[in-house]
Amino acid sequence: MSLPSSPGSRPWTFYVLAAFFTLFVIFLYGPMISVLVLSFQGPNASLVFPLRDPSTMWFDELFNPRRTGDVVGAFDRSLPLALIVMVLTVLISVTAGFAFRRRFLGASLIFYTAIASLIVPGLVLSIGILVTFKYLLGQSAAWYTSALGAHLSWALPFGLLIMFAILGRLNPSYEEAAYDLGASRWQTVKSVVVPIVFPGVIAVALFGFTLSYDEFPRSWLTVGPKNTLPLEIWTMTTNVTSPALYALGTVTTIVSFLVIILALGSILIIQRKRSR
After folding, report:
1. CB 236: neighbour CB atoms within 10 A?
2. What is the reported pLDDT for 83?
3. Which of the listed ranges 24-28, 222-226, 255-259, 260-264 does the model predict with the highest average pLDDT?
C-alpha cells in the first residue's frame, strides 16, 4: 500500500524529468562554455584545461592568419550562401504554402517529392550533386551553384513544413470577415493574412539561415575548391593544434546566437504590436 503524498509534493516523474532536462542542458551548453573559455588561452597554453595567461590573441589570429586556415575567406562564402538560402527558402516556402491551401492535381506527389530529401543522407546527396554537375552538366562545383542547390534541398523541406503548419492553423473566418467588410484580395493578404503568419515567416528564415550556415555533409563535395566555414573548421581540426580553433568556434557560435536573437526579437516586437 503506497503512502499518500503530502499536499504540494511533486510526483517522482517530476524529478526524473528534471534530472533528464538538467543532463540535456549540460550536454547542450557544457561543450559551448568549454570552447568559449579555452578560446581565451594564453600564447603558451595547450588545447585543454586549465586556462593559462588569458588572452584574446587567438581571435586576432583568425583575422590575421599566420598558422590558421583561410577563416575570413570561408566566412565570406558561408555568410552570403546562408543569406541566399534564407531568402530563397522564405520565398519558395511562403508561395508554396499559399498555393497548397487549395487542393490541386498532383499536390500530394509534389509535397512528398519536396520533403523526400530529408531522408537522403547528406554525404550521398553531396556525391550525387558533384557527379551531376561535373559529368552530366560539365560544370565545376562552386558554393554559389552546386552548394546552393544542396543547401536548398536541406533547408527548403523544413520551410515548407513550417509554412504548412502555420497556414493550416489560419482560420479562414478572418479572411471572410475582411471580404465582408469590403477589402480586396490584396488588402486581405496584406492587412490580415501577412501579419498573422509573419512570425512563421521569420521562423522559416531562421531555419534557412542556420541550416545552411552550419551545414557540413551537403557542403563536403559541392562547394568546390574553396571551403565554407564548417569545412574550414573541419580542416583546422586536422592541421591546427592551437586554441585558434576554439576562437573560431566561439565566433561562429556568437554569429548563430545573434541571428536567433534577432529572429526572436522580431517575433516579440510583432506580437506586441498585434496585442495593442
Report:
1. 21
2. 93
3. 24-28
Would the pTM count as exceeding 0.85?
no
The contacts of residue 39 (CB under 8 Å, 6+ apart) are 58, 59, 243, 246, 247, 249, 250
Kindly report, residue by residue over 154-209, the tens digit of the pLDDT: 999 999 999 999 888 888 888 888 888 888 888 888 888 888 888 889 889 988 99
* CB-based contact 128:247 (threshold 8 Å): no
Cα–Cα distance, 143 to 29 (Å, whole number): 31
The span from the CA of 249 to the CA of 58, in Å, is 11
| DSSP code string of 74-128 | HHHHHHHHHHHHHHHHHHHHHHHHHHTTS--TTHHHHHHHHHGGGGS-HHHHHHH
Tally Cβ neighbours within 10 Å of residue 204.
Answer: 29
10 Å CB burial of residue 232 (0-12, 13-18, 19+) is buried
Torsion angle of the four alpha carbons 87, 92, 97, 99, in this order, in degrees rounded to the nearest 10: 140
Ramachandran bin of 224, using left for φ above 0, alpha for ψ from -120 to 50, beta for the remaining angles: left
**All residues at 6 or more sequence positions from 159 whose CB lies less than 8 Å from its CB, including other chains:** 89, 90, 92, 93, 204, 207, 208
What span, in angstroms and rounded, lies between the C-alpha atoms of 246 and 58?
A: 8
